[in-house]
């Protein structure tokens, strides 16, 4: 499995990129990394394939929430940086919980495959764009239908549904942001309020 922030256009043009190769046999990952590394495409390796795969899927879910904050900024012309930062922090915490519940290691979720890839995906890509459309006022089902009609796949939608099922099956606690995202995907209104309630500390 390969994870980490690897925007294909940047890799193709030779911009510095860090990624992670995972295999249950670390020697295989190391050998592959040696074959494919270049001066600007640098590879770290791990045997935590479960952690890399879980992080790779879940960062798409949480990138939707980061996109909502960007859409709010586009809508009103004022930044929502504080909400975005709190959302990022909560997303990383939840990435850790889900990753560990699926057999991965917590440190994988805060490294390239998790937090690193979330940062890249939250800045651009279809999941971020989808979230931004919601932040600008579109209901999630309508925004998704428009993107599907344009042949744009939003991986985070399916991943969020699956994660919601896993949360129940594995009794994973402490995923309020995931719950808020699922509610938004179901057409819930006030996405900013839902996300804020999920990521801000409780009132004293």
List keywords for this structure.
single chain; mainly alpha; 11 helices; 204 residues
Structure commentary:
The radius of gyration is 17 Å and the shape is globular. Strand 2 (17-22), helix 2 and strand 3 form a beta-alpha-beta unit. A three-stranded mixed beta sheet has the order 1-2-3. The protein has helices at 8-12, 26-36, 49-76, 81-101, 106-109, 112-123, 126-135, 140-149, 155-170, 176-185, 191-199; strands at residues 2-3, 17-22, 41-46. 67% of the residues lie in helices and 7% in strands. It has eleven helices and three strands. It has 204 residues and is mainly alpha-helical.
What's the arrangement of secondary structure elements?
Blueprint lengths: L1 E2 L4 H5 L4 E6 L3 H11 L4 E6 L2 H28 L4 H21 L4 H4 L2 H12 L2 H10 L4 H10 L5 H16 L5 H10 L5 H9 L5
Parallel strand pairs: 2-3
Antiparallel strand pairs: 1-2
């Amino acid at each position: 499995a390969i994870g980490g922030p690897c925007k294909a256009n940047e890799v193709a043009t030779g911009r510095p990129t860090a990624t992670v190769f995972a295999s249950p046999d670390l020697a295989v990952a190391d050998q592959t990394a040696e074959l494919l590394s270049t001066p600007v495409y640098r590879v770290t390796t791990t045997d935590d394939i479960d952690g890399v795969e879980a992080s790779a899927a879940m960062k798409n879910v949480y990138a939707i929430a980061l996109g909502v904050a960007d859409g709010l900024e586009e809508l009103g012309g004022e930044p929502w940086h504080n909400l975005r930062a709190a959302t990022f922090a909560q997303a990383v915490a939840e990435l850790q919980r889900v990753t560990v519940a699926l057999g991965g290691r917590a440190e994988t979720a805060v490294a390239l495959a998790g937090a690193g890839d979330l940062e890249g995906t939250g800045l651009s890509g279809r999941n971020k764009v989808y979230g931004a459309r919601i932040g600008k006022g579109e209901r999630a089902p309508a925004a998704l239908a428009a993107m599907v009609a344009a042949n744009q796949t939003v991986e985070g939608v399916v991943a969020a549904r699956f994660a919601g099922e896993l949360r129940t099956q594995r009794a994973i606690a402490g995923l309020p942001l995931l719950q808020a995202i699922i509610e938004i995907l179901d057409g819930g209104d006030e996405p900013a309020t839902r996300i804020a309630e999920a990521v801000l500390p409780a009132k004293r």
